Amino acid sequence: MGATVNMDLYLIRHGVTQWNVEKRYLGHSDEPLLRYSLENLQKLRAFVARLEAPLLISSDLRRCQETMAYLLPHRHYIVEPRLREFNFGDWEGKTYNDLKDVTAYRQWIDNWEKESVPGGESGQGFSRRVSEWLMEDLPKLVVDENWKTGTKSCVIVTHGGVIRYLIQVLTKDKDAFWRWRISHGEAVKLSCIYDRGEWQCNSLSVVPTQENDKQ
Question: Does residue 198 have an active-site annotation?
Fold first, then answer.
């Protein structure tokens, strides 16, 4: 794919679930949103509606699809299972206090990239599936005859771990995964260029801003 594409990626973390409130590990478990939490997304809803983004993508898990449906009702979006959160396996639904004295948990906390979760996923497996989507499938969607000029927008509703990993890869900042904290219902904008098989990020910001609100 030799085309050069200017792309603004809007990465949105889904709204709040009951397990989020209770600070339980929530990965592949398919928890719904707390309906009242959608009220906190009204500002973001108005912002993304103004974008008129031609490409919408959501993790296949319920909490992300419900967030997308609220933000952009009646719009078609692509469902992508590889944008799921990390699979916490036997630790799904557990809290830090439940696990803090478990040796395997302490080892995972110290080196999540290489350690595996019992019954779940390794850091390498998580990184691989998200990277494959970013480097192989997303370019197929954005490199299109109609997208060769101008900057296009893509709205993606996914999970905190996925967003932090994408920021790390796109900005080429190995410390970004731990430095960034993305709240539920928060969005970040990455202005990127896709050129000859590589992504380059030129800017990164939290949106919407107060300036956006005045538009």
Answer: no
Q: Where are the beta strands (DSSP E) in the chain?
A: 4-13, 55-59, 78-80, 151-158, 187-195, 198-207
85 is a catalytic site residue: yes
Total-model pTM = 0.94
125/114 Cα distance (integer angstroms) = 9
Phi-psi region of 210 (alpha: psi -120 to 50; beta: other; left: phi over 0): alpha
Rounded CA gap, 162 and 168, in Å? 10
Q: What is the pLDDT of residues 64-76, one digit of tens each?
A: 999 999 999 999 9
What's the whole-number average pLDDT of the chain? 92
State the Cα–Cα distance between residues 190 and 132, nearest whole angstrom.
19
Helix axes 42-51, 62-71, angle to 10 degrees: 70
Q: Which is catalytic among the residues 31, 66, 80, 85?
A: 85
